[in-house]
Amino acid sequence: MLKKLLIxxxxxxxxxxxxxxxxxxxxxxWLGSGTNEAxxxxxxxxxxxxxxxxxxxxxxGNPTLQYMMGDIEAHYPWISFTTDGGFLxxxxxxxxxxxxxxxxxxxxxxxxxxSLWQYNSGMPELLADGGVYGCTYSDVDTSWDPLFxxxxxxxxxxxxxxxxxxxxxxxxxxxxxFLIDFNDGNLPECYSWGYRFDGTATAQQMLEAIQAADPNLxxxxxxxxxxxxxxxxxxxxxxxxxxxxTFSGTNPYNWxxxxxxxxELNSGDWFGCSYTPYDSLWRPLFxxxxxxxxxxxxGINENKEGTPSVFPNPxxxxxxxxxxxxxxxxxxxxxxxxxxxxxxFQSEGSISTAHLPAGIYSLEWYQNQQLFRTSFLKL
Length: 379
Known about the structure:
The chain is mainly β. The protein folds into 3 domains: 2-155, Ferric Hydroxamate Uptake Protein, Chain A, domain 1 (Beta Complex); 162-293, Beta Complex (Ferric Hydroxamate Uptake Protein, Chain A, domain 1); 302-378, Sandwich (Immunoglobulin-like), CATH 2.60.40.3080. It contains 3 helices and 27 strands. Strands 1, 2, 3, 7, 8, 9 and 10 form a 7-stranded mixed beta sheet that branches. Strands 11, 12, 13, 17, 18, 19 and 20 form a 7-stranded mixed beta sheet that branches. The protein has a 5-stranded mixed beta sheet with strand order 21-27-26-23-24, with no helix packed on it. The longest helix has 11 residues, at 65-75. The two termini are 26 Å apart.
């Protein structure tokens, strides 16, 4: 479950961070490629529940901090960095947008061997294998030391877009991505459906259309409220023990509360539901996170001819299926049919298999409303 793995740091005295709490082996989504690994942590310090994010990065050679930021910006359509003269001036990411001098400033750091944040040289800083680099938007004291250091990050999610959707409900030129996150630890716990429409549509109309199309999904919408959601093997029942909250956004980094079932949909939006506890101010603790595209039987025959070949096969740490678009959702099952991994293909159709035990596995994905299935051997 992502939110249990993503909070990799514990809140410690300022300028200190427990480096032993960073399990590099647990990271399943890396940007870049190479034999060296590093993290970039961005802390907006804007008092939101999604204010600090970490990016896992692989590289070769001697790239700089600015080069890593450029790779991250090229990969994620909803993040941007502004630099000038070796300084970090602004970062925008979803709902977060902070510029130096308005009112605070961006500071950059490197985590030292004693797990303490130290100022670095900024954008020209050379990356080191295993390095952890931080950016924080903070006021400073009279000695120009920042009042806040990067802390409590969540790992940034893989890119998920409308191209990741396997099956669409409805017709029309407008579309919305609908997400349900059960937060129950039963992976995958977050799913997404695509909904197409023309004219105007409300969230309730979308939910009713998706429920009619997907026989595995069931809602209780009595009284104009989203009470219960059932999606085998998941169930989220109102008050037993949590409740459903609904959100609107355009990506997983800019969720805001919405009006619930009466929300009018806008093309390109995301509409999310999260089964979550709340804090003392009735703010949800969990927002919808990275989804897997939902799929169901709509009369699609399994495609055998033309299925891309997996290589290397047998494999050790990674498999590749050249020609597949990054973002397509996949499922891996073991020899007993149990789902052991799901996610989205990365560049060049790659999937990390480093954490799978040795054995024979089947790989499934949907593309152009066809089911593809192939197998591979993990050594």
